[in-house]
Amino acid sequence: MTDRPLKQIHLAAHFPGVNNTTVWTDPASRSQIEFASFRHLAQTAERGRFDFFFLAEGLRLREVNGLIHDLDVVGRPESITVLGALAAVTTHLGLAATVNATFNEPYELARRFASLDHLSGGRAAWNVVTSSDAFTGANFRRGGYLDHADRYTRAAEFVQLTREFWDGEDVRHRGPQFDVEGRLPLPRPPQGHPVVIQAGDSDEGREFAAAAADIIFSRHSTLASGQAFHADVKRRLAAYGRKPDELKIMPGVTYVLGDTEDEATERAAEIRRAQVGPQTAIAFLEQVWGIDLSGHDPDGPLPAADPVADSTLVQGRTKLGDPLEIAARWRAVAAEKQLTSRELVIEVTGRQSFIGTPATVAAQLDAYVQNDAADGFILVPHLTPGGLDDFVDQVVPLLQERGVFRTEYTGTTLRDHLGLPVPGRR
C-alpha cells in the first residue's frame, strides 16, 4: 500500500481512421470526411471532459500489389484544417494533429501550430512522426527519401528549431539538416509551445520522447509491459533535467462495454471479426510474407512458404519488423492455439482492450494508472463518429466517482489539462 494521492487519469479521443479498427459494416458508421463526424466525436470528448482530440495522418494511399488498399478509399482530410474548424465548436478540448517531420519544414509547421494555438486559446498539440518510406515521400519535391538512421536526427533538430520559432525570437540556425534564418510573424503561442506528442517504442524513440516530448503515445498490451515501459521512459527524463510528471505516457487502447461480462466478451469478439474480415486478414499476411496471397484461404493455416525479405508488394504501411522472425512467432501462436490465418491476425493485431461492464472497465483503467502502467489513455473507438458515446455516458461518471477524473475543466489550455508547465524561453 502507499499513502500517495490518487493519480488523476488523462483521457484523449482518437478519431477512427483508415485502418482495421473501424467497423465500416455497422449501420451506425458514418463519413470520414464530413465535418459533422469530426464535430460529433470532438464534442462528445469535450462533454466527457477529455484532455484532447487526436487525429492521425496518412500522406499517401496504401497499395498492395499495385492496387489501392480498400480501407483507404474513404479519404483523410488534412488534420490542422479540421482542427481549426473544431476550435470554433469546442471551448476547452485540446486539438492534436499528426504532422510528419520528414516531409515538412520547421518554419512552416511552427507557423501552422502557432496559428492553431492562438485561434483555439492555447489548445494545440503536435504529434511528431517520421518516415523513411520513399513510397510515401514520392509525393514530395525532393523525393522524400531519408535513411532510417537519419529519421530521429532530423526530428530532433526539427523540434528544436520549431521551438525556437515558437519563442518569437530571431532564429539563426546552422545544423546538419536545416540552415534557417528568420522569425515567425506571430506572437509567442498562448501555451508558450504547443504540446508535443511522440509515438515510438524503439530505444531511440524512447530517448527522443524523454528529451523532447510532453506525451508519448505507446502500445503495451499487459499491465507488466506497461509498467516496464513507464519505468524505463520516466527514468530517462532526469538526464534532460526533467521531472517524471513532465512526460505523460498514454497508450492507445480500445474498449467494449456490456451489461454483463459475458455480453461484453461476446460483443468484443463480434467486433474483432468485423474489423478483420477475410480481405483484411490477407492484407496483413501479405505485409509480412511479401508475396501475393490473394488465392490464400484466410480460414486455413498460415502460408507454408517463407516470407520474402525486402519485398515491395505492400507500399505505404509501416514495417512490422523482420519478416522471418514475425512469421516464426505467428506460426508458434497459431500452432499453440490452433488458429486459422484470420484468427491469428485477429489475435496478434488487437490493441490493448478493456472489456466488461462499465464498472469493470473503470476499475481496469484506474488500476493501470494507479499502478504506474500509464498516465492515461488515448481511446480508439470502433465506430465513426458515435463510438465514444457509451464511454462518456457510462464510464466517465464512474471514474469521477472514484475521484480519479475531473468533473469540470479547471483550466483553459491543454497544458492546464495535462498539468504541464509553460516552457521558458530558450
**Mean pLDDT, rounded to whole units?**
91
Percentage of helical residues? 25-40%
Structural class per helix/strand content? alpha/beta
User: What is the CA–CA distance across the termini?
Assistant: 41 Å
Q: What shape does the CA trace take?
A: globular
Weakly predicted, low-confidence segments: none
Q: Please, how many helices?
A: 14
**What can be said about the biggest beta sheet?**
10 strands, parallel
- Give the topology string: H per helix, E per strand: EHEEEHEHEHHEEEHEHEEHHEHHEHEHH
The rounded Rg comes to: 21 Å
Q: Strands across the major sheet, in which order?
A: 11-10-9-6-5-2-1-15-12-14
Which strand-content bin applies to the residues? Answer: 5-15%
By DSSP, the count of extended strands is 15
Descriptive notes:
- This protein has about 425 residues and is an alpha/beta fold.
- The protein contains 14 helices and 15 strands.
- It has helices at about 35-45, 80-85, 105-120, 135, 150-165, 205-210, 225-235, 260-275, 280-290, 325-335, 340-350, 360-370, 390-400, 415-420, and strands at about 10-15, 50-55, 65, 65-70, 95-100, 125-130, 170-175, 180, 195-200, 215, 250, 250-255, 315, 350-355, 375-380.
- A ten-stranded parallel sheet has the order 11-10-9-6-5-2-1-15-12-14, sandwiched between helices. It has a three-stranded antiparallel sheet with strand order 4-3-13.
- Helix 5 packs parallel to helix 6 (about 205-210), helix 9 crosses helix 11 (about 340-350) and helix 12 crosses helix 13.
